[in-house]
């Protein structure tokens, strides 16, 4: 179970197929042009809809951004929570959660870019809700690092800083992926797992070889 369940979020997201289509179209336009440079008219036009057809689902452009951000942040939190196995050793837990986190941001890079990099455009109330989900996401990694430190598997210099660095690195994948060097989400996830284990002072990290 996550720290920030999807309480009341269904109504915010919109449950209809039309709402889902609008969110998907908005993600592509926001990711390409940026939230500030996009109008709801452009989003509607990309779906061959009239601007008025968006209004019953999302009354403002900001409410549409919030729905996208809410959906994305809950999805990534759910992904790492499902990947975590508290009954196994901390290095294995960090491996599975970092893998899930990085792959999610690579596979969902357009929605992740919008959800992660357009936060400043949310209303204060909506920003606070998203910030709470982000804190819950970071806590998943913090608890794993703490468990590893207690067990002697990790020797982190700063637990909170390490968790923030791991999440920041994962988020940034959505900005640049794919690249000439990395085009397979599983490969970049494996590289970031190795980096994360070294970052927390893993007692026996895997060898970090340069990609060919």
UniProtKB/TrEMBL annotation:
Q: GO terms for molecular function, please?
A: DNA-binding transcription factor activity; transcription cis-regulatory region binding
Q: What keywords are assigned to this protein?
A: DNA-binding, Plasmid
Q: Which residues bind DNA?
A: 39-58
Checking Gene3D superfamilies in the record gives: Tetracycline Repressor, domain 2
**Keyword DNA-binding in annotation:** yes
Q: Which PROSITE patterns match?
A: HTH_TETR_2 (PS50977)
Which residue intervals define the domain HTH tetR-type in the entry?
A: 16-76
Can the keyword DNA-binding be found in this entry's annotation? yes
What's the protein name?
A: TetR/AcrR family transcriptional regulator
